[in-house]
Amino acid sequence: MLPLKIENLAVTFPGLVAPVLSIGTLEISAGSHVALTGGSGSGKSTLINIIAGLERIRAGKVLWGSQNLADLSEGRRDRWRAENIGLVMQDFHLFPGLSALENILLPARLSRVANAELVKRAHALFETVGLKRPEQHIETMSRGEMQRVAIARALLRKPGVIIADEPTASLDLESGEAVGDLLLSVAADAGSTLIIASHDQRLVERLGRRLSLKSGRIIGDVPTGEIAA
Amino acid sequence: MIRFILADLRRLWLGGAVVILLVALATALGVAVTLQERSLRLGSARAADKFDLVVGAPGSETQLILSSIFLQAAPLPLVEGSVLTKLAADPRVSWAAPVGFGDSFAGYPIIGTTTSLISGTTTGFSEGKMFALEGEAVLGAAVDLSIGAEIKPMHGTAETGGHTHAGPAYKVVGKLQPTGTPWDRAILVPIQAVWHVHGLGADHGHHEEHEGEHHDADGHDHSAEGEAHHDDADVHAEGASGHPDTAAHAQEAQQQGQKYAFALGAASSKHVEEDHHGSIDADTPIVETFGASTPGLPAILVKPKTIADAYRLRQEYRSGSTLGVFPGEVLTGLYATLGDAKMVLSAVAAGSQGLVAAALVLVTVIHVGQRRRQIGALRAFGAPRSSVFLIVWLELFLLVALGVGIGFLVGLGAAHVGAQMFTAKSGVILPVGFTREDGRLALILLGFAGVLAAVPALLAYRQSPAQALRA
């Protein structure tokens, strides 16, 4: 539900002359579904990190709604991200030793915001993503199931933005497709802005807009048309 | 959060167990040293505090105390019997009792003394009664013999090549309540009996089969020195009769013996008669008034009536032919030595603790390095930095605290075992226990652990989540 506006963003790493990412202006409207594509080294992951608030912004503005991430301290950025962004990663980053449900609730618990309502929501989300045994330990699940748990975790605090970094890359075709379906449907249900970085052509085609990156610059920005903003 | 930490620790249980083990061992070492030293100090002080003043012949104060209070048998120079007579008659003295030693039975020292010492230093009998006849004996609480047992004194101890006195035997008539002192391991007999067993002039030899051997075993270094400071009269007496060819030396020894030897005091004519047999007259009632004919004594334990009297008596008996000593002052000197030894041990313990601390830092730094991704992920998904800090800190702190706790218990256990072994050997009960000082040590250790655990926690805190995830 949050629109993104990027102005004059430049990300440089020490030791590299050329910026790894340089974006003059970019706008993504609230509730739209956008695919990010590009080879490795294209700056795709850097862009994901920047818009998710995982990386400090040294030059330029990244506005989510009216909030400029560049103005936030690291701690505030962490808090802002926890409240507004649902992250889904290629490697799931689930924590072994805990049950699926505990994994969904862990970030909220660590932020001391988990209340009875949120626990109820966790149970509901668990069903939404199509899983059955909330007490199952995470290490006994299949990769497809794990990614579903990760998606439920991302959705727990009703984020305005869902950012997924290669969510299907480590899954087999079938699970990947199911996960793609799931991401699209939950984002549509909640009206969240959805940004997915992916190589998965089938997934990319199902999003409303495709941004192509190369050497840190946007070289293509085309509507793909299936689901409009 | 606690569940997350527990899940994490379960996953890393092996490493965690090693950390706990390391910390526990290092802590236990330090704790055991501290406890053992303290209990040794307390135990020996308690063992000595029943004895206010010890009077002996001039010589080593430490040896006098070790022999008379801790019953570590060693030949002592003798103080004249008349000193006892004088002390017993002194109005400032509530009781004064001779201590005669040198014999043993089954590894227990046989101590000749008086009924007043026994009633003055013990809380009473657990069984039986006080000796009343010369052939009766009373057991310390830790002596593993029963009433009615027969005791054949052995001269010296079996380990030092002693021999059994041919004739005499005591009959056990009573067993004392425990006192927590080395006297618990002693067999107490009337001093008169000890005199009778040994009570001969230099010209009377013991008629014992192994006297030559005994001389060889015990007396050779004195022969080399040509002096018999710390030997006892028997040896020389035996030497004289057993080796006529060394008569000249024996003659000299006899003269020394007259002055130093254990049982060489003038004896009554009756004694002399019996001395030929080296035996006791088992049925003679004991006499505890010591006249001018009292033989020389290794030590006299004195109970003064007041503290002021104690100081005055010590002063009076510190000149010329006697040496008055407060056990406390000798122990203080010994504690200083003990303290030095403790310092060395403590330094070793501290060194090992330092090593463990360094190892822990290394382990945790590596550990945090390996967990960068996990920590980064926690933050990426919205865990606040304070939570991440707390998780890493708590995990390590829990391990170390557990190690410290176990270490304290192991140290306590080790000190107990050590104390029991010591008690079995010496009879001194060592009170092992924690004091406020140990509480402080525990707090210091835990505080240190807290700071140590903060190092990796800070490392975890510092990295940006994106960096951590890339790792």
Automatic annotation (TrEMBL), chain A:
One of its GO terms (cellular component) is plasma membrane. Keywords: ATP-binding, Nucleotide-binding, Transport. One of its GO terms (molecular function) is transmembrane transporter activity. It holds the Pfam family ABC_tran. InterPro entries: AAA+_ATPase, ABC_transporter-like_ATP-bd, ABC_transpr_LolD-like, MacB-like_ATP-bd, P-loop_NTPase. It comes from the Bacteria. This is ATP-binding cassette domain-containing protein. It comes from Endobacterium cereale.
TrEMBL record, chain B:
GO terms for cellular component: plasma membrane. The keyword Cell membrane applies. Residues 355-460 form the ABC3 transporter permease C-terminal domain. Keywords: Cell membrane, Membrane, Transmembrane, Transmembrane helix. Residues 247-257 have a biased composition (Low complexity). It is found in: Cell membrane. The chain crosses the membrane at residues 12-35, 344-368, 388-419, 439-461. It is a multi-pass membrane protein. It comes from the Bacteria. Pfam families: FtsX. Residues 202-237 have a biased composition (Basic and acidic residues). Residues 202-257 are annotated as: Disordered. PANTHER family: ABC TRANSPORTER PERMEASE, ABC TRANSPORTER, MEMBRANE PROTEIN. This is FtsX-like permease family protein. The lineage of its organism: Bacteria, Pseudomonadati, Pseudomonadota, Alphaproteobacteria, Hyphomicrobiales.
